[in-house]
Amino acid sequence: MNPSEYIDTARFTxxxxxxxxxxxxxxxxxxxxxxxxxVLKGFVGPERIADLVAECDRVAKHGHRNFNRTxxxxxxxxxxxxxxxxxxRFYDRSNAFVPADKLGADSIIRAIYEWPPFALFIQxxxxxxxxYRYADxxxxxIVNLAEAGGGFPWHFDTNNFxxxxxxxxxxxxxxxxxxxxxxxxxxxxxTGVEAVLDGDPTLIRTLVLEPGDLQIFKGRYSLHRVMPLxxxxxxxxxxxxxxxxxxxxGSPERTR
Length: 256
Ligand SMILES: O=C(O)CCC(=O)C(=O)O
Ligand SMILES: [Fe+2]
Prior knowledge:
The protein is of the alpha+beta class. The protein has one domain: Sandwich (Jelly Rolls), CATH 2.60.120. The protein has 6 helices and 15 strands. The two termini are 32 Å apart. The site of fe (ii) ion has 5 residues, from loops.
């Protein structure tokens, strides 16, 4: 199987280094610079997405479920601070993910991830000088499953960028919300974070991602969440991981 058959390469010329390629990469760079988010709508065309849904349906039984309560920073509580402080605002998180080794040798998702032009193109869009596929056999490319009652509450990522492919939406809910550049390396901006947690609409953008949309997101400084979702249909998202060092794998604790 040739992964380029799944990607709408007529619209997204990710393979060539011609003029259309530069225009596309420049556009993505501008979007990422402006607010840390770039979306390629219909990256996998509607006529091809059913095969990816079928792949997710096939591996969903291998999902590891997780339930926890977390603040936006994945840290412990700080009882010395006021209850409204962002460090003290804990939310339920539940989701499941299918580890990378369960996708199987005939995985379309893995074929896209491992197709060399894909990583080169994402690297160009991000303008990263050091950029490698994650070497972790359990976590390099995973499928995230979110069911009714789930979602991913407000948080900052601990990694610099995330590349996700929307494969199936829940019946309702599950929209992606974010507040661009809310903090910086030197300013946590707890006042702004508190405002977002309280729902200040002037600080929040909502993205409705449809099956086949590819999202490149820089989540370390932009607070974001997946809104609660409802209905029997599972939300499927493939998460492609890239890192800045070759040969990196996760710690045994995290892998467990
Ligand atoms: O499921 C998504 O769309 C993104 C989830 C997210 O924010 C993350 O994995 O850090
Ligand atoms: Fe995130």
